[in-house]
Design goal:
CATH architecture of the largest domain: 4-Layer Sandwich
Structural class: alpha/beta
CATH superfamily of the largest domain: Ribonuclease Z/Hydroxyacylglutathione hydrolase-like
Oligomer: single chain
Strand content: 15-25%
Strand order of the largest sheet: 1-2-3-4-5-6-7
Radius of gyration: 19 Å
CATH class of the largest domain: Alpha Beta
Distance between the termini: 31 Å
Number of domains: 2
Helix content: 25-40%
CATH topology of the largest domain: Metallo-beta-lactamase, Chain A
Length: 273
């Protein structure tokens, strides 16, 4: 099944880009091979005030632009990786808005002002605990079929799952959680909005399952490193993405190990049994 990813021209910086009335994004100036044009900071107007979803990295100009876009009532975090939550404390200092996040954050020493629980309600949003990319990852769904999908599902690329905090079994299960909702619009942490996301969700599940089967077939009695598996299975991989591919392969291997299909020794990975 083909994955129909989206692209977009480089967006403007330091200014809201309207998706629909009461909903816009400001794209942080942190482009890169894993962040596309940069982190999306989403601004959602509600009856109780504006909710900011992912303040983004700790870039003073970006935080100032988010704060200047309107009164902020709440700051929500999809997860605490620094490209999404690095600017949270600065935005809180600028606006006085409390920070909401998962109760056991990935970022050491980070403590949210208010803990979000799975299926908890924050204004018009329902929190969905979707670990996989990060153990503290949350998506936020609305009754109209809109989901702020963070890094769990993005419109422009697959998601990196990097152990030990990233977990492929969790990631696959979280895809099933989102598929059960049958939503109509995803607003990801990087890249443009994704309309009709269900076909991509199905394609992502198929892609991961196919990749995992290929990894299992590559294993034999001769130990292989993650880099060796990448060299066998990935063709035309840009050098700057090799490390991310190795982390995804490791996540698959650890899942296979948990299922009794792979063994890890000092020299590398071999087939179990």
């Amino acid at each position: 099944m083909d994955m129909a990813f989206s692209s977009e021209p480089e967006p403007p910086r330091l200014t809201p880009i309207e998706v629909r009335p009461g909903l816009s994004r400001i794209v942080a100036e942190n482009p890169g091979p894993l962040t596309y044009h940069g982190t999306n900071t989403w601004l959602l107007d509600t009856d109780e005030g504006r909710i900011v979803i992912d303040p983004g990295p700790d870039l003073p100009a970006h935080i100032a632009a988010v704060a200047a876009a309107g009164s902020v009532a709440r700051i929500l975090l999809t997860h605490t990786h620094p490209d999404h939550a690095g600017g949270a404390q600065a935005l809180k200092a600028a606006t006085g808005a409390p920070i909401h996040g998962w109760g056991v954050p990935w970022a050491k020493g980070f403590v949210p002002d208010l803990v979000i629980e799975d299926r908890g309600r924050i204004g018009p949003l329902t929190a969905l605990h979707t670990p996989g990319h990060a153990s503290d990852h949350l998506c936020f769904g609305m009754e109209d079929g809109t989901v702020f999908s963070g890094d769990h599902v993005m419109s422009w690329s697959t998601t990196i799952v990097s152990p030990p905090d990233g977990d492929m079994a969790d990631y696959m299960n979280s895809l099933r959680v989102l598929l059960a909702r049958q939503d109509r619009l995803y607003l990801p942490g990087h890249g443009p909005p994704l309309e009709n996301p269900v076909p991509l969700l199905r394609a992502l599940r198929m892609h991961r399952s196919t990749r995992e089967a290929a990894i299992a077939r590559a294993l034999n009695d001769v130990p292989l490193s993650e880099a060796a598996v990448v060299a066998r299975l990935y063709t035309g991989l840009p050098e700057n993405l090799a490390r991310a591919a190795e982390r995804n392969v490791l996540a698959h291997l650890l899942k296979l190990q948990g299922e009794g299909k792979a063994l890890r020794g000092d020299a590398g990975w071999v087939r179990a049994g």
